[in-house]
Design brief:
four-stranded mixed beta sheet; three-stranded antiparallel beta sheet
Length: 159
């Protein structure tokens, strides 16, 4: 769609330049028409780009830094009874990561609040209840490391 819009704008500009080279009142009218066509094409292109910018996906890169295998991992709407599928699948070994994406309509993204919940193989379950719609790295912490404010850190592990 964007390529088509750019091609139309380029054709209109080429037509305007060609008509201007011929001279006369007709070329001025054609130049005005081509210029307005290019302007409306550019406006349409800009409108498409801004609507594409608004419709972004939330993407969480979740790193297991717990020191244990994560056997259960859920990302679900806050207040929901249904956790959905176990995103850890067969398990997420210590040091492994997974990318979780979510898509919500652009006008509802500011209202989204997720719960990120995980359980390690030793049976410890922890959660973070106020995850917003964003692109963020998330490191899952062990119970001992999570003795602070949260069970997660918004950072990728240091290598």
């Amino acid at each position: 769609m964007k390529l088509k819009t750019v091609a139309i704008a380029a054709a209109a500009l080429a037509l305007a330049v060609g008509m201007t080279a011929c001279g006369g009142a007709a070329s001025t009218a054609a130049s005005s028409t081509a210029s307005s066509a290019a302007a409306s094409s550019e406006a349409a292109s800009s409108e498409v780009a801004s609507s594409e910018a608004e419709a972004t996906s939330a993407e969480y890169t979740v790193y297991n830094t717990t020191g244990s295998k994560v056997t259960e991992l859920y990302l679900y709407d806050a207040g929901s009874e249904d956790k959905g599928e176990n995103l850890a699948g067969e398990g997420l070994a210590d040091g492994e990561s997974i990318v979780i994406t979510r898509d919500v309509e652009a006008d509802k993204q500011d209202d989204v609040v997720y719960v990120l919940e995980f359980t390690t193989e030793d049976g410890n379950t922890q959660s973070f209840d106020t995850l917003h719609y964003e692109v963020a790295p998330i490191s899952l912490k062990s119970v001992d490391a999570a003795a602070g404010a949260t069970a997660i850190a918004f950072e990728a592990p240091q290598k």
